[in-house]
Design a protein that fits this description.
This protein is mainly β. It folds into three domains: 5-233, P-loop containing nucleotide triphosphate hydrolases (Rossmann fold); 246-464, Beta-galactosidase, Chain A, domain 5 (Distorted Sandwich); 478-687, Beta-galactosidase, Chain A, domain 5. Helix content is 15%, strand content 44%. Helix 4 (107-117) packs across helix 5 and helix 5 crosses helix 6 (151-164).
Length: 699
C-alpha cells in the first residue's frame, strides 16, 4: 500500500522577527551596517516519516518542540524550507482557533465556506449540514455572526465541519483542549469513529491518555527533531523520562518503585512497568464554573533528591499555588498536597484523579469490593463503579493474577473534612480506571482565605499481597479484643471470633424512630474513625434530622465496650430508640434477666420482626447461645438509662436473631433538649464454649 503522507528530510526555518528585535539592531539596518547576519530559527530539522491510509499517529513533545509546525506543513498552511512533502487525499485540519472563519459571516455561512474550501459542493454540504449543526450543539446561534462566538463555540463549529466533510486525512492540534468537557468527550469519540472508518489521523495532544488510546504509533519531537518513534507506551515512557532536566520535572525511586513528576502529572513505575495510565495522577480545581488542571500550571521543583521532591505549581488563571511533597520509600508512594491562596478565591470543588490502566480488574473500597465492568465503545462519559460513602478514604485495585502489575492500596489522610472517594471507569477513548478523591465545598466554605491550606496526604502501597488487602484496608476501623475482632463498617459493627462471623444482617447497630420514620445508624454520614486511647471514636450525622451520634468503642479481653452519645442540634422528639445485636440463625436459645427461651424457626409468611420475650422491663444482661458458636451477652452498665430487654426473630428473608436494648417514649414522651445525651452504655461479651477434655471422653 502506498503511503498517504510522505515527508523526506523536511526542514523548516523562520527568519527573525522584526519590531522589537530591530530596535536592538538585530535582523535590521543595524546588522547590515555592522556586517552581522541575523540567525534564522529552525523549527524542524531533517524530518522524514511516512503514514499509510488508516493509520493513526500521535505527536508529543514539550512546548516549542515543533509539533504545531509539523502539522501546518502537512496541512499545506506553510511550506518547508527544504525537503519534500507529499499528501494525497482530502485533508481536514483543526490547527488554530478561528482559522478559516470569516468573522463577519454567520455560523451557517461559515460552514458552507469551510466545507467548500475542503472541496465539497454545495449539495454535499446540504446533505450533512444538519449533522454538523447537531454535533456542534450551537443550533440557536447558527445564524449569528461568528465574531460573537466564544472560543468554545469556535471549536465546536470548526471540529464539526472537519469531522463531517468525509476527509481522507484528519489533522488536529491542541485546539480541542479549549472546548468544554462534554464536547471534548464527543470529539474523542468522533475521532475514534473516524479511525474505525479507515481515515488517517494525525494529532498533537498533551493528554497522554488520549494519545495512548487512539494512536498506533507515536513520535516524540524535541528541538525540531524526531528523537523517538515507537508504540504509544514506549514513546510516552521515554518522553516522561527524558524531560527530567526541565525545572518542573523530577524522577525519583527507591527499590522497585519509581515515580516521575512531570509538570503537574505524576507517573508511577513498578519494576520498570508503568502502573499508572498515561494521564497519571493529577489534581483539578473548579472555580466559578471553570476547571483548572494541575497539568496546566507553571511548575518548579524547588527541592529534590533521589527519593522525592517538593514541587510548586502556579495556576495560570487562579491566584493559587499548588504545593506537592512527593516521596517513595520501600514500595510506598507518599503525596502531600496543599493550596497556597494568594487572595480570597472561590473554589467549589477539588478532585485528585488517580488513573490506572484497564488491566486492573478488581476494586475495593472500605469493606466493599467488586469487578470493574468492561468499558464499552458507547461509553462517552465516566461511569461510577463504587461510591459507598462520601466520607470513605481508602481503596485498592487488583490486576489479573497473570499481570506484572502490583496490587495497589490507596490510603488518604484528609486534612479537609469534605473529601471522599469513588471508583469509576473513564470514557471509551481514555479506557482507564480512576480513583477520584473529591471534595465539594458548601457555599458557606468555598471562599478560601489567603494563606496555606493543607488538603490531603496519600499513601499508596504496592507491597501488600492481594489476599491481605481487605484486612489491610480495614485495619484502621478494626479492634482486637483477644480472640474477638470488632470492625466498624459505616454505622454498624461486625464481630468475628477466630475469623468466624458472630453477627449477621445489620450486625451491631442503632436506630431511632422519629416522626414515624426509622433512622438506622448505617444510613448516617459517618466521619473517619479517630483514636480514643486503645479504642476508636466515630461520629455519624443523620441525613434527615438535626442530630448526630458519637460512638466510643473500647477493646477488652473477649469483649467490646460501647458507649453511644446523642448530639441533638435542636429540640428532638423521639418515639423510641434501640441498640441492637443481630446474630445468625445458628443461635438457638436466649436468656434475659427475667426469662429464657428458644428461638423458633422462621415462618415464611412472616414479613415482620417477631417479639419472643414477654417481660420488657429494664435489665442488665441478655444472652444468646449456639451449639456451634460462643455465647454472646449484651450488657448495659448505666442504671440511669431505662433500657428495656427485647428478644426478636427477624423476618424470614432476613433470617437473623436479635438482642435489643430498647427505650420507648412512655407516657410523657421522649424529648431531648439541644446538647449531648447518653444513648447507650454497656458491652458485648463473648464466652467461649467449654472445650471437652479428650481423656474424659476416652474414660
Amino acid at each position: 500500500m502506498n503511503p498517504i503522507i510522505t515527508l523526506e528530510q523536511v526542514t523548516k526555518r523562520f527568519p527573525p522577527r522584526r519590531g522589537a528585535l530591530g530596535l536592538r539592531g538585530r535582523g535590521s539596518l543595524g546588522d547590515l551596517l555592522r556586517g552581522t547576519k541575523a540567525e534564522d530559527f529552525t523549527a524542524l530539522e531533517n524530518i522524514s516519516m511516512e503514514m499509510h491510509p488508516g493509520e493513526s499517529l500521535g505527536i508529543i513533545g514539550r512546548n516549542g518542540s515543533g509539533k504545531s509546525t509539523l502539522l501546518s506543513l502537512i496541512a499545506g498552511v506553510t511550506l518547508p524550507t527544504s525537503g519534500r512533502i507529499q499528501v494525497f487525499g482530502r485533508v481536514a485540519s483543526l490547527l488554530e482557533l478561528g482559522a478559516g472563519f470569516n468573522p463577519v459571516l454567520t455560523g451557517r455561512e461559515n460552514i458552507y465556506l469551510n466545507a467548500g474550501l475542503l472541496g465539497m459542493r454545495h449539495a454535499q454540504v446540504d446533505a450533512v449540514f444538519d449533522d454538523i449543526v447537531r454535533f456542534s450543539g450551537i443550533e440557536e446561534f447558527i445564524d449569528q455572526p461568528v465574531a460573537t462566538y466564544s472560543s468554545g463555540m469556535y471549536v465546536r463549529i470548526g471540529f464539526s465541519v472537519a469531522a463531517f466533510v468525509n476527509p481522507d486525512i484528519f489533522l488536529a492540534d491542541e485546539v480541542l483542549a479549549v472546548g468544554d468537557e462534554d464536547f471534548q468527550r464527543k470529539c474523542r469519540r468522533k475521532i475514534g469513529e473516524l479511525r474505525e472508518q479507515g481515515k488517517t489521523i494525525l494529532f498533537v495532544s498533551h493528554d497522554l491518555s488520549i494519545v495512548n488510546t487512539l494512536c498506533e504509533r507515536v513520535i516524540l519531537l524535541d528541538g525540531g527533531r524526531i528523537i523517538q518513534r515507537d508504540t504509544p507506551q514506549k514513546t510516552i515512557t521515554y518522553y516522561l523520562r527524558q524531560v527530567g532536566r526541565d525545572k518542573g520535572v523530577h524522577t525519583f525511586s527507591d527499590g522497585d518503585l519509581e515515580a516521575i513528576h512531570c509538570d503537574g502529572r505524576i507517573s508511577l513505575f513498578h519494576k520498570q512497568e508503568e502502573m499508572t495510565a498515561p494521564s497519571g495522577f493529577t489534581m483539578n480545581i473548579e472555580s466559578l464554573g471553570r476547571h483548572h488542571s494541575s497539568a496546566d500550571a507553571e511548575w518548579t521543583v524547588v527541592e529534590r533528591d533521589s527519593r522525592g521532591c517538593r514541587a510548586e505549581g502556579r495556576m495560570m488563571r487562579l491566584p493559587v499555588r499548588l504545593i506537592w511533597t512527593l516521596k517513595v520509600e520501600k514500595g510506598v508512594f507518599h503525596w502531600q498536597a496543599a493550596l497556597d491562596v494568594e487572595q480570597r478565591c472561590p473554589l467549589s470543588r477539588i478532585d485528585v484523579e488517580c488513573y490506572l490502566p484497564a488491566a486492573y480488574g478488581t476494586w475495593l473500597c472500605g469493606h466493599m469490593s467488586g469487578t470493574f465492568p468492561d468499558i464499552q465503545p458507547g461509553d462517552i462519559t465516566w461511569n461510577v463503579v463504587a461510591a459507598p460513602e462520601t466520607s470513605a478514604s481508602s481503596g485498592a485495585a487488583l490486576p489479573a493474577t497473570d499481570s506484572p502489575l502490583p496490587a495497589v492500596v490507596f490510603q488518604f489522610n484528609k486534612t479537609n473534612p469534605h473529601f471522599g472517594l469513588f471508583w469509576a471507569n473513564t470514557d471509551y477513548m481514555s479506557a482507564c480506571r480512576v480513583l477520584d478523591y473529591t471534595a465539594r465545598f458548601p457555599d458557606s466554605q468555598e471562599n478560601f482565605a489567603p494563606g496555606v491550606h493543607p488538603l490531603l496526604e496519600l499513601r499508596l502501597d504496592t507491597t501488600v499481597a492481594a489476599a491481605e488487602i481487605l484486612d489491610h484496608l480495614l485495619a484502621r476501623e478494626s479492634l482486637d479484643c483477644g480472640r474477638l475482632k470488632a470492625r466498624f463498617e459505616q454505622g454498624r459493627i461486625r464481630l468475628l471470633w477466630d475469623k468466624e462471623p458472630l453477627t449477621a444482617f445489620l450486625h451491631v447497630y442503632s436506630s431511632m424512630l422519629i416522626a414515624h420514620l426509622w433512622n438506622d445508624s448505617q444510613n448516617f454520614a459517618w466521619q473517619e474513625p479517630e483514636p480514643l486511647g486503645t479504642g476508636l471514636r466515630i461520629v455519624g450525622k443523620s441525613r434527615r434530622f438535626p442530630f448526630a451520634q458519637e460512638w466510643e468503642l473500647i477493646p477488652r479481653e473477649n469483649a467490646l465496650g460501647i458507649r453511644v452519645w446523642l448530639h441533638a442540634e435542636e429540640e428532638l422528639d423521639v418515639q423510641e430508640y434501640h441498640f441492637s445485636l443481630v446474630l445468625p440463625k445458628s443461635y438457638t436459645s436466649w436468656t434475659t434477666d427475667r426469662e429464657k427461651g428458644v428461638f423458633p424457626d422462621f415462618e415464611p409468611e412472616a414479613g415482620h420482626w417477631v417479639h419472643l420475650n414477654r417481660n420488657y422491663e429494664s435489665g442488665v444482661a441478655m444472652t444468646a447461645e449456639s451449639p456451634s458458636l460462643p455465647m454472646l451477652t449484651l450488657c448495659t452498665d448505666d442504671p440511669e438509662l431505662p433500657l428495656r430487654q427485647t428478644v426478636l426473630n427477624t423476618s424470614f428473608s432476613e433470617n437473623s436473631r436479635v438482642l435489643q436494648a430498647l427505650r420507648p417514649s412512655g407516657q410523657s414522651g421522649l424529648r431531648f433538649a439541644p446538647g449531648r445525651h447518653l444513648y447507650f452504655s454497656g458491652a458485648i461479651k463473648v464466652t467461649p464454649q467449654k472445650e471437652t477434655d479428650p481423656s474424659a471422653v476416652q474414660a
